[in-house]
Amino acid sequence: MEFVWMIPLYIIIPVTGIILLFKGFNADKGHGRKRIGLSFILLSLPFLHAFMVDRIDASNEKSLIGSYALESNGQVVLKLHADKTFELAKLDSVKVFGKGNWQYRRWDIDEVDLTFGDSNQLSFEVFFTEKGKTLQNSFWTGTRSKFVILVSSKNEE
């Protein structure tokens, strides 16, 4: 759905700003200054949006650092470190475990991608709630799907 508003913000509005800028230079003084001012405002909107999104993403990524426990029993199984490394304990429903690097991505959903040393990958969808952060993924066990839900631990690093 982001695609729908990205075209106006990053294509139509800047093109309109460029057109107004050229018309402003060719108009008389009163109308020209208004058009030039409006064109600079229109041209700055995509940059302002990109800066704000980057700051929000950086804040969300920083807030993910810490320990995560299984929702079912409270056992800490995942630790995300500030240097972009992680440690994942062995779980019954997940075949991969160990250490590696993590990355935060935001597209239609917020997610944490875990990349292990042997290039295996695992992704968790991130939910920011009033109680804290929740990481969730589902795995197919052969007969049914099983959810793994990790909640942010109270005793974070």
Can you describe what's shown?
The structure is a single chain. With 157 residues, this protein is an alpha+beta fold. 38% of the residues lie in helices and 34% in strands. The chain has two helices and eight strands; from the N terminus they run ααββββββββ. The chain has helices spanning 2-26, 29-63, and strands spanning 66-70, 76-80, 85-88, 98-106, 110-116, 121-128, 133-140, 145-152. A hairpin with a 3-residue loop joins β4 (98-106) and β5. The longest helix has 35 residues, at 29-63. The chain starts with a helix and ends in a 5-residue tail after the last strand.
Give me some keywords for this one.
alpha+beta; eight-stranded antiparallel β-barrel; 2 helices
Can you give me a brief rundown of this structure?
By secondary structure, the chain is α+β, with helices and mostly antiparallel strands. The chain has 2 helices and 8 strands. Helices cover 38% and strands 34% of the residues.
What composes the largest sheet?
Answer: 8 strands, antiparallel, barrel
Indicate the overall shape.
Answer: elongated
Strand adjacency order, main sheet: 1-2-3-4-5-6-7-8
Parts with pLDDT < 50 across at least 5 consecutive residues: none
Mean pLDDT: 85
Strand content: 25-35%
Cα end-to-end separation: 36 Å
Could you say which structural class the secondary elements and strand pairing correspond to?
A: alpha+beta
What is the multimeric organization of the chains shown? single chain
Helix content: 25-40%
Per DSSP, the total helix count is 2
Number of strands: 8
Radius of gyration: 23 Å
Helix and strand element order: HHEEEEEEEE
